[in-house]
Please model this.
Amino acid sequence: MLRTLLRIKSFFKDLLPRSLFGRSLLILVTPIFLVQIITTYIFFDRHWQKMGDRMAYAIAAEVAVLARELQQEATANNFGGVAENAYLLSFNLKYEPGKRLASTFYDEGSAPLNPSRENIIAQSLARAMDVQMKGYSYDIKMDRDEKWVRIFVQLPEGLMTVTLPERRIFSSSGYVVLLWMVGSSIILLVIATLFMRNQIRPIRRLAVAAERFGKGRDVPFFKVEGAREVRQAARAFIDMKSRLQRQIQQRTAMLAGVSHDLRTPLT
Model:
């Protein structure tokens, strides 16, 4: 068990970035990424899907009302009142007496025949039609290019076709929210990257100065900058550099004096 935990720890440790910039950026990006995932799931699963289901249920109810009115008016061949009601609902109604559906979109005990069933919008509308149009065969066709939805309902005396704009069943607010979330995440990522680069730069300069001084080279243009902790480390480096330089000067002066004192008796 302990070995397994150590292996898992080593595995995740190997996945972490090696640089301070990468790790700091990961700390900033991970919470934003998790928040975006949770928000997207809640919005699309709870809000957008429910809103789409309610819009589909309302359309199915309106189609059911038109079908019943049309069925009552079919004996008198008076479709004017039903067509006016459909126009008020932003529907384009067409009735063809004696015509039958070639293939039903949904049939009890059989698989769906229309590939638009795979569309999430068509699925919501189909579920609503199953509830509102019990006893009727129907078909749904969606034209995504023309932004129209056609619903075919088989009545006893003929075929009713209802054409409605796609905006009646589909809300573009989901895409707007998704684009806004993605855009804001990219902007925040860019800002975080620029900010972290400015914070990491003084640390890199301090590392370069320490390396140059360790190799015996002079560091004339090093200045204190950055966050408070980085400034504190830089001041500590400057104080250490000054003490070491004074120690080297004192050692050089002492060795020069000793060599002078030894040179006199030898001469």
Notes: The chain is about 65% helix and 10% strand. Strands lie at 92-97, 137-143, 148-154, 158-165. Confidence is low (pLDDT under 50) at residues 104-118. The longest strand covers residues 158-165.
